[in-house]
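Weekly puzzle thread! Below is a chain. First person to post its structure in token form gets bragging rights.
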Amino acid sequence: MSDDETLLREAARYGLKAVAMDESGDLPEDSRVVLFLRNHLLSREIRKRFRASRVLFVPISSFDTELESALYTLRLTFLTDYAAAVGRTRRWIDDLRSLTEPIGFVSNGPCSAGTPGTNIVCELADDLTLDAWASPTIGPGQWVGVGSYCEIAITSRGPAGKRPRPFTIDGTAVASGVLAARDPRFDEAGDARISAADDVRRELNRRAPIIMRLKGGVLTDVRAGGEDFTDALREVTNPEYDLHALELGLGTNQHVLPHVDWTVNSQLNEGAGPVHIGFGDGMTGAHMDFVVAEAAHHFGPSD
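Winning reply:
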């Protein structure tokens, strides 16, 4: 189901029954719905239409509404191996439950572009809230965002210094690409920052790889192609957060990695790398995720 006719036709090519949004009232209870929203942000009214359905929700409108990006997102939605993603999610959850040491992400030597590789250490708090979907099925009346299948998100929404941090990150991360997203609850100031963030995102991706240096969970320096983007990123993600990382994302969708185009602003890119780091809340400023594609994780301090 979609609010866009082109996406409906394309979904039908993958074997789905294409249903327009204005026909949602004719759906039987307990319908299985894959909902692609290109022209509307998620709202209470839309949720009410599918109250009794099993919904896999793909929020194209929160990232990039251009048709090429929308079709790319639809394609990766069908290329995703959901059973494999759930398996990775469950293994991560088992590991996190018994974790007593930091998590390290390290690349084997320089990244593919020849720049220094990733070497970060992530210290996690004892009490964590994880956002992920660890079931291969969706029940009646349940809504699951596609991102919940593709990543485990460890997040912090409070202003800097106002609440305990669930994680800290130290070291250097090399990102293959960056995404910019808006939350449906964005405010007026956030709207302006999110619009400006798209130019920053495009320029970062054009100059990738993106070199990030973090200390205590704060981004102290971000550069791509020799240019410093630190101040620009601070502004578009809301200066009040002062580049404190608000999300540590553990990717579970590496199955799509060979098909990823890092220049596309699509949520399906997030979980393709083993880890991504997010800044900004998507409401008062853009939420920007930097995806590290070339790294393996280990537990305990680096050698």
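Puzzle host: Confirmed. Bonus trivia for everyone else. The two ends are 50 Å apart (CA to CA).
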